[in-house]
Structure formats: structure tokens, C-alpha cells
């Protein structure tokens, strides 16, 4: 069985350059008129925004890694590994955009455990703050869709960016034909996060775009999102069918 091997991509992104120009114009510093319902961003606009949003962290990390290559020799290998991880992440994102634009998906599978390693490296979350549990053989599930890594990276990146140094636990399980990716962190603003997760339409700006992207890609893969708030710990679970 394979995670998301035959999940359909969303409809092709038409007029990509026009969409890009529209997004760039929308973010220019100018006074904006009231937005009518007909002017809300389309899913195609949101996909482009999501890609731009998701590229920021890996590009920044890659740039920092390349600047550090002239540093002490004992850090060269570490920086090279980071640069390789970020390059692989960007390539994964471009494969997603390529397929969403109607191109033939490239063949190739990775194990879920390898996808987790790549996602952790791309998100920049310090290893000292992260605990990963892999149960029921979930790490050996083949992954044939780049969107799985985008989901994981977005969740870990959000936990890193907004978690204020609080620890994170990622728990992977495989039961009843479903792979569950459960991310737990304390101190999460539950109402705000759940509000973003419940949005069926893309946000007008970048606020909550990462969580909206997680929701969209999870549904595209035939999965579902659940969450639980017990005490100070908030757990968001992405359930994906093992095909």
C-alpha cells in the first residue's frame, strides 16, 4: 500500500503569470478598497500564495547556509547537509506546483520516516524541542505524493515560528488503513488555530495561510483533520488513507 499514490491533484492552475501579478499587486503598500465577495481570492490564487509562503523559510535557510560555508571548517559538513535538505524541500514544492499545473507526475516513492526527516530539516525546528514517535510500522509506509511533506513541514514550521520555544511531539501511527500524523504542543491559541483550520476559502492575506494550505492538501489527499485540546496541550491530527 502507498500513502496518497492515486489521490487527484486539484484542477490545473490557469494563467499562472496573471495570478502572480495579481498577488504581487495585492501586497503592494497602498490603501486598499473594500473587498467584495466576488473579489475574494480563488483557489488558484491561494495555491500560488501558499507556494510563495512556503518557500520563504527554506530559501532563507538555504541562503544562510550558503553564507556560512566560508566559516569554520568543522561546520562545513553541517551547513552542506542543511543546504541539501533545503534544496530537496524546494524541489519537492516545485514538483507539487508542476503536477498541480497539469504536468505528468514524476515517479518515485519514499518511506514516511524519510519524509519526516526531510520535513524536520526544512521546518528549522531545533531537534532539542522535538520528540518523534513512530508506531505500528507507520515509518515504513511508502509515500508517493509531495503534498504529504508539505503538510508536515507546514505544521512543524508553524509550531516553530509561533511556539515561543515550547516543545513539540510528533506521533505517527498506522491503524485500520489510516496513517495518523499527530502534532502536540502546549500554549497554542486554540480558537485562532481552529478558526484558520475551519476556513474553506483562502485568507485575504498571509495570516493563517499555512493552516489553510494544510487543510486543503489534506482534503485533496482524501484525508481529514481532527483536533483535541486537553489541559494546556493542543493536538492536531492529520489522518491520511494508506492506499
Automatic annotation (TrEMBL):
It comes from the Bacteria. SUPFAM superfamilies: ATPase domain of HSP90 chaperone/DNA topoisomerase II/histidine kinase. PROSITE patterns: HIS_KIN. One of its GO terms (molecular function) is kinase activity. Residues 50-243 form the Histidine kinase domain. Its EC number is 2.7.13.3. InterPro entries: 2C_sensor_his_kinase, HATPase_C_sf, HATPase_dom, His_kinase_dom. The keyword Repeat does not apply. Keywords: Kinase, Phosphoprotein, Transferase, Two-component regulatory system. The keyword NAD does not apply. Gene3D superfamilies: Histidine kinase-like ATPase, C-terminal domain. It catalyses: ATP + protein L-histidine = ADP + protein N-phospho-L-histidine. Coiled coil: none annotated. PANTHER family: SENSOR PROTEIN CREC (PTHR44936). This is histidine kinase. It comes from Blastococcus goldschmidtiae.
Amino acid at each position: 500500500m502507498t500513502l496518497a499514490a492515486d489521490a487527484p491533484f486539484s484542477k490545473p492552475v490557469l494563467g499562472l503569470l496573471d495570478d502572480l501579478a495579481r498577488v504581487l499587486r495585492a501586497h503592494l503598500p497602498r490603501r486598499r478598497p473594500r473587498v467584495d465577495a466576488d473579489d475574494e481570492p480563488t483557489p488558484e490564487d491561494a495555491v500560488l500564495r501558499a507556494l510563495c509562503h512556503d518557500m520563504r523559510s527554506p530559501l532563507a535557510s538555504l541562503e544562510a547556509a550558503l553564507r556560512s560555508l566560508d566559516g569554520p571548517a568543522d561546520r562545513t559538513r553541517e551547513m552542506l547537509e542543511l543546504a541539501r535538505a533545503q534544496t530537496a524541500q524546494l524541489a519537492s514544492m516545485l514538483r507539487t506546483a508542476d503536477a498541480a499545473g497539469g504536468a505528468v507526475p514524476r515517479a518515485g516513492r519514499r518511506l514516511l520516516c524519510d519524509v519526516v526527516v526531510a520535513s524536520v530539516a526544512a521546518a528549522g525546528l531545533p531537534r532539542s524541542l522535538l520528540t518523534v514517535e513512530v508506531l505500528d510500522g507507520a515509518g515504513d509506509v511508502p509515500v508517493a505524493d509531495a503534498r504529504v511533506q508539505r503538510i508536515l513541514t507546514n505544521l512543524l514550521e508553524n509550531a516553530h515560528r509561533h511556539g515561543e520555544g515550547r516543545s513539540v511531539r510528533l506521533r505517527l501511527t498506522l491503524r485500520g488503513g489510516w496513517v495518523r500524523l499527530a502534532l502536540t504542543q502546549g500554549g497554542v491559541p486554540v480558537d485562532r488555530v481552529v478558526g484558520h483550520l475551519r476556513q474553506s476559502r483562502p485568507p485575504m492575506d498571509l495570516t493563517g495561510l499555512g493552516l489553510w494550505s494544510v487543510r486543503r492538501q489534506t482534503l485533496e489527499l482524501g484525508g481529514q483533520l481532527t483536533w483535541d485540546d486537553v489541559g494546556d496541550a493542543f493536538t492536531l491530527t492529520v489522518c491520511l488513507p494508506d492506499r
